[in-house]
Design a protein that fits this description.
- Strand 7, helix 4 and strand 8 form a beta-alpha-beta unit.
- The chain has four helices and eleven strands.
- The two termini are about 35 Å apart.
- The protein has one domain: Rossmann fold.
- The protein is α/β, with parallel strands linked by helices.
- The strands form two sheets. Strands 1, 3, 4, 5, 6, 7, 8 and 9 form an eight-stranded mixed sheet that branches. Strands 2-11-10 form a three-stranded antiparallel sheet, with helices on one face.
- The chain binds inosinic acid and magnesium ion.
- The site of inosinic acid has 17 residues, from strand 7, helix 4 and strand 10.
């Protein structure tokens, strides 16, 4: 079952907790405090550039959309769904994470799979830093594993327009695998094309630009442990 999330962006700026004393912890007013605290260090020399801070990722985030606890729970469920799907025939399963965005997701996901599997790496590039839509999907690094006659599970961070996953799965099908299925952590149903079926979906999200848990903006923020909405003014 896909979990539907509503966004309703509520900027943290101006929030009751947004006081100078509280500010370093303003994303931390949840049970996650002790874990998050290590990411926030007031003593770091943060230089403010035109659009963003050079450090202190939290200043660039509008809100946490999906917490690390929610992610953990859902990734474990996805692992169980995938394990059930391949229960009877998993010996040849090749997991193909679409790099780079899926690295953290796939690392967590495969540890919930209770059988032997292979990983085939493939790097795809589509977004040039910001949220620019359009342009062809570019296979930067081709698959490094033979997949003919084998089950393939493509794992991606987010299904937005679907162009990336369409291009990747089409490329993979040309190599005559036994099957190609798709697992994506996030899906934006507003844009996802009807003719692309994702077999496993972590969360459906509104059409906002998100970072963290592997997802990037300008190749940054991948290491933020939750999935967060990036402040709009940073990319508009
Ligand atoms: P699509 O080809 O439009 O489906 O885009 C998929 C790729 O674009 C994903 O694998 C991400 O790398 C990137 N992308 C799309 N939406 C977002 C977002 O909200 N945050 C970060 N990356 C995104
Ligand atoms: Mg990607």
């Amino acid at each position: 079952m896909v979990t539907q999330l509503q966004t309703g962006i509520e900027p943290l700026r101006g929030h009751a907790l947004d006081t100078p004393d509280f500010r370093p912890h303003r994303l931390l007013h949840s049970p996650q405090t002790s874990v998050n605290a290590r990411f926030v260090n007031r003593d770091l020399p943060c230089e403010r550039t035109a659009n963003a801070y050079n450090c202190g990722m939290e200043d660039d985030l509008a809100k946490i959309l999906i917490s690390r606890e929610q992610i953990d729970r859902r990734v474990a469920e996805l692992g169980r769904e995938i394990a059930a799907e391949y229960a009877d025939n998993h010996r040849d399963l090749v997991i193909v994470p679409v790099l780079t965005g899926s690295i953290i997701f796939v690392a967590d996901l495969i540890r919930h799979l209770p059988f032997k599997m292979h990983i085939g790496l493939m790097t795809v590039s589509r977004y040039r830093g910001a949220t620019t839509v359009g342009g062809a999907t570019k296979i930067v690094e081709d698959l490094n594993v033979e997949i003919e006659g084998r089950d393939v599970l493509v794992v991606d961070d987010i299904l937005d327009t679907g162009n990336t996953l369409k291009a990747v799965s089409q490329q993979l099908r040309e190599r005559q695998p036994a099957s190609v299925k798709i697992c994506t952590l996030l899906r934006k149903p507003a844009k996802a094309p009807k003719d692309l079926h994702a077999d496993f979906v972590g969360f459906d999200v509104d059409d906002v630009f998100v970072v963290g848990y592997g997802l990037d903006f300008n190749n940054q923020y991948r290491n933020w442990p939750d999935i967060a909405v990036l402040r709009e003014e940073l990319y508009q």
